[in-house]
């Protein structure tokens, strides 16, 4: 999985006044969990643009000058009106311990059902996986090459290389639904087939 570096600085004060001052200065207060003790730090809000405002999944290198940590984003708080980032929690990675996180779904192939007029519906845009940090995939490939009209693609049909999907076997990733146009065409074809043949002229 691709990694993004966030440069920040450790926080000496974590009170409400200091936190408000950080936000007013355009910085985001953050906490890194998973180590021997929590690490409080802050970074410029612009540094999180390619981590937060993207459909892709990334691991993070937190660079605090004299210390660096490998981590993943665990939780984010945003302002309900302005969408301004208020706080971010990270979780420190351990190369020998599995981590669970969500990664995006990537559709590949061409569905015969879609070619016949069906509508492709993506039920799961992201899937939860569990793996060692080095085996975390950038995305999950959902191959729709065999989906006919009305077919569904379940998680059991996805190839998993050195990672596990944390979903029940009956979880549907995507499906090809019969479109209104295709349904209307099928109904008209059925009516035409049932219609009696015209009388021959004398």
TrEMBL record:
<dbReference type="InterPro" id="IPR001021">
    <property type="entry name" value="Ribosomal_bL25_long"/>
</dbReference>
<keyword id="KW-0699">rRNA-binding</keyword>
<dbReference type="InterPro" id="IPR020057">
    <property type="entry name" value="Ribosomal_bL25_b-dom"/>
</dbReference>
<feature type="domain" description="Large ribosomal subunit protein bL25 L25">
    <location>
        <begin position="6"/>
        <end position="90"/>
    </location>
</feature>
<protein>
    <recommendedName>
        <fullName>Large ribosomal subunit protein bL25</fullName>
    </recommendedName>
</protein>
<dbReference type="InterPro" id="IPR037121">
    <property type="entry name" value="Ribosomal_bL25_C"/>
</dbReference>
<comment type="subunit">
    <text>Part of the 50S ribosomal subunit; part of the 5S rRNA/L5/L18/L25 subcomplex. Contacts the 5S rRNA. Binds to the 5S rRNA independently of L5 and L18.</text>
</comment>
<dbReference type="GO" id="GO:0008097">
    <property type="term" value="F:5S rRNA binding"/>
</dbReference>
<dbReference type="GO" id="GO:0022625">
    <property type="term" value="C:cytosolic large ribosomal subunit"/>
</dbReference>
<dbReference type="GO" id="GO:0006412">
    <property type="term" value="P:translation"/>
</dbReference>
<keyword id="KW-0694">RNA-binding</keyword>
<dbReference type="Pfam" id="PF01386">
    <property type="entry name" value="Ribosomal_L25p"/>
</dbReference>
<dbReference type="InterPro" id="IPR011035">
    <property type="entry name" value="Ribosomal_bL25/Gln-tRNA_synth"/>
</dbReference>
<dbReference type="InterPro" id="IPR020056">
    <property type="entry name" value="Rbsml_bL25/Gln-tRNA_synth_N"/>
</dbReference>
<feature type="domain" description="Large ribosomal subunit protein bL25 beta">
    <location>
        <begin position="98"/>
        <end position="179"/>
    </location>
</feature>
<keyword id="KW-0689">Ribosomal protein</keyword>
<keyword id="KW-0687">Ribonucleoprotein</keyword>
<comment type="similarity">
    <text>Belongs to the bacterial ribosomal protein bL25 family. CTC subfamily.</text>
</comment>
<dbReference type="Pfam" id="PF14693">
    <property type="entry name" value="Ribosomal_TL5_C"/>
</dbReference>
<dbReference type="InterPro" id="IPR029751">
    <property type="entry name" value="Ribosomal_L25_dom"/>
</dbReference>
<comment type="function">
    <text>This is one of the proteins that binds to the 5S RNA in the ribosome where it forms part of the central protuberance.</text>
</comment>
<dbReference type="InterPro" id="IPR020930">
    <property type="entry name" value="Ribosomal_uL5_bac-type"/>
</dbReference>
<dbReference type="GO" id="GO:0003735">
    <property type="term" value="F:structural constituent of ribosome"/>
</dbReference>
């Amino acid at each position: 999985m691709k990694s993004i570096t966030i440069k920040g600085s450790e926080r000496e004060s974590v009170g409400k006044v200091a936190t408000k001052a950080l936000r007013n200065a355009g910085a985001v207060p953050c906490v890194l969990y998973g180590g021997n003790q929590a690490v409080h730090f802050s970074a410029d809000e612009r540094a999180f643009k390619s981590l937060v405002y993207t459909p892709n999944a990334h691991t993070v290198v937190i660079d605090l000058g004299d210390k660096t940590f490998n981590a993943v984003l665990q939780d984010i708080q945003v302002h309900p009106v302005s969408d301004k980032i208020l706080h971010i929690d990270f979780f420190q990675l351990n190369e020998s311990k599995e981590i669970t996180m969500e990664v995006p779904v990537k559709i590949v192939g061409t569905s015969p059902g879609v070619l016949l007029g069906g509508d492709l519906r993506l039920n799961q845009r992201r899937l939860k996986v569990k793996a060692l940090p080095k085996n975390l995939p950038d995305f999950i490939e959902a191959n729709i090459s065999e989906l006919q009209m009305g077919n569904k693609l379940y998680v059991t049909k996805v190839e998993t290389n050195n990672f596990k999907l944390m979903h029940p076997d009956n979880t549907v990733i995507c499906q090809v639904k019969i479109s209104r146009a295709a349904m209307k065409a099928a109904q008209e074809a059925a009516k035409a087939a049932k219609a009696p043949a015209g009388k021959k002229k004398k």
